[in-house]
Design the sequence.
């Protein structure tokens, strides 16, 4: 059995990145190993998931979401690492709607999955602050209103940096209401 899984996950993540805008099927791997409950998706696995959830290919994005659903239930994945990865990937102008759609679907599964999505998005907000895309902030507000999750102190500080009267400022004010 494979002893060091990180190189395999790194290769899978690299393959996803090279084909991020492809809708063809000729480049896809066998992803069944990702459903193994003894297969952690911590380091390179979080990169794989972060990239696969934003890929243009619907089947790969759905498969990645299925892997994430299972991994959350089995506690094999780290929300903070995925949030940090997405914060780094935002510099490269990926389609944010794909991520928000994936995390919105994830949150519908159960309260555990909603909490995981919340933790990913809070980590993202803590990392990028006022530049957090509106789609992510809207989803944070939806999750806060539905589940009553608390905003961290660091996230509150970042939200305070959003000023003005636009949609981002309105969302930030609503998220800051009631504090943590």
Sequence:
């Amino acid at each position: 059995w494979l002893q060091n899984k990180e190189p395999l996950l790194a290769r899978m993540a690299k393959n996803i990145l090279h084909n991020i805008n492809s809708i063809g099927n000729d480049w896809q791997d066998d992803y069944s190993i990702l459903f193994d409950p003894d297969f952690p998706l911590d380091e390179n696995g979080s990169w794989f998931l972060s990239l696969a959830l934003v890929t243009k290919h619907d089947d790969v994005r759905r498969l990645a979401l299925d892997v994430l659903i299972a991994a959350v239930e089995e506690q094999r994945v780290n929300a903070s690492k995925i949030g940090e990865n997405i914060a780094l990937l935002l510099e490269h102008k990926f389609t944010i709607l794909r991520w928000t759609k994936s995390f919105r679907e994830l949150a519908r599964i159960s309260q555990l999955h909603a909490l995981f999505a919340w933790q990913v998005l809070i980590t993202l907000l803590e990392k990028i602050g006022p530049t957090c895309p509106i789609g992510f902030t809207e989803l944070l507000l939806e999750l806060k209103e539905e589940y009553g999750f608390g905003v961290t102190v660091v996230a509150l500080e970042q939200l305070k940096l959003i000023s003005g009267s636009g949609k981002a400022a309105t969302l930030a004010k609503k998220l800051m209401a009631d504090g943590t």
About this structure: The chain has a mean pLDDT of 86. Residues 21 and 56 are 5 Å apart (CA to CA). The radius of gyration is 16 Å.
